[in-house]
């Protein structure tokens, strides 16, 4: 299956943020980091450091039907968020240095609130990871989201209070945003997380957002996924002009 990359059109990194003000649809590119790079290996000599664990975290369930991820470098864009009360809310995916893509229903109960986003965390069943980071974030919910009637436009962005420093956090990378459509269902527990597709050259693309599935992931019931490509120009690009987008590998 072919995939057409929908990374926003980029401008040179030398263009200042001030010059970008009001130029919706123009973006700065980070030349040193590729998006959609997934490494299933151990990460060389860093495996022991990346695999450190602490005591189990209480009250956190695993995704139904999920399997352990062999390396923290396998899905380096995965994020999870908690609300102001410290309650786990949803998953998400890092799409550039400043924004995490998630579902609108994850933030609809408190759209103006502050959330804490964790990146670089391999296992939610533990209370910490040696190389994970936590960044406060505010929500940008799609204005057309119409819960609880139909969950149309179930898409939102989390704007990080500080951009991710990819040089200091080599285990964290953004995923590419794309128009590819694949029949790959999610599971209960990863609402807001990405539907992913790997191209023939190995680049991993975000082609959808998990909106909802029937509890238990019963195969006779369908799930709902937001097609990312429908919102690249109308929502994602128009709200992320201050970010550094990474080119596809």
What this model shows, in words?
5% of the residues lie in helices and 25% in strands. The protein is built from three helices and 13 strands, in the order βαβαββββββββββαβ. The protein has helices spanning 17-20, 47-50, 232-236, and strands at residues 10-11, 27-29, 78-82, 88-94, 99-102, 114-119, 133-141, 156-160, 176-177, 194-198, 204-212, 224-227, 244-245. The strands form three sheets. A six-stranded antiparallel beta barrel has the order 3-4-5-8-7-6. Strands 9, 10, 11 and 12 form a four-stranded mixed β-sheet that branches. α1 (17-20) links the parallel β1 (10-11) and β2 (27-29). GO terms for molecular function: serine-type endopeptidase activity. Belongs to the peptidase S1 family. CLIP subfamily. Keywords: Disulfide bond, Glycoprotein, Signal. Residues 63-249 form the Peptidase S1 domain.
Provide a short characterization of the protein structure.
GO terms for molecular function: serine-type endopeptidase activity. With 249 residues, this protein is mainly β.
List keywords for this structure.
single chain, 249 residues, mainly beta, 6-stranded antiparallel β-barrel, 4-stranded mixed beta sheet, 3 helices, 5% helix
């Amino acid at each position: 299956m072919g995939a057409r990359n929908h990374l926003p059109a980029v401008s040179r990194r030398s263009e200042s943020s001030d010059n970008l003000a009001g130029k919706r649809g123009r973006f700065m590119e980070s030349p040193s980091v590729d998006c959609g790079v997934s490494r299933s290996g151990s990460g060389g000599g860093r495996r022991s450091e990346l695999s450190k664990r602490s005591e189990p975290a209480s009250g956190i369930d695993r995704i139904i039907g999920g399997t352990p991820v062999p390396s923290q470098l396998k899905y380096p864009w995965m994020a999870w968020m908690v609300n102001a009360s410290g309650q786990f809310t949803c998953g998400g995916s890092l799409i550039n240095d400043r924004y995490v893509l998630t579902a609108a229903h994850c933030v609809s109960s408190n759209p103006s609130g502050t959330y804490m986003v964790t990146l670089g965390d391999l296992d939610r069943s533990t209370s910490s990871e040696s190389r994970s980071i936590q960044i406060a974030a505010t929500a940008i919910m799609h204005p057309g989201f119409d819960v609880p009637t139909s969950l149309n436009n179930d898409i939102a962005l989390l704007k990080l209070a500080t951009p991710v420093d990819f040089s200091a956090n080599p285990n964290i990378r953004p995923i590419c945003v794309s128009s590819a459509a694949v029949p790959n269902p999610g599971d209960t527990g990863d609402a807001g997380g990405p539907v992913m597709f790997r191209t023939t050259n190995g680049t991993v693309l975000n082609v959808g957002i998990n909106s909802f599935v029937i509890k238990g992931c019963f195969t006779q019931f369908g799930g709902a996924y937001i097609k990312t490509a429908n919102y690249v120009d109308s929502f994602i690009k128009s709200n992320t002009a201050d970010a550094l987008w990474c080119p596809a590998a």
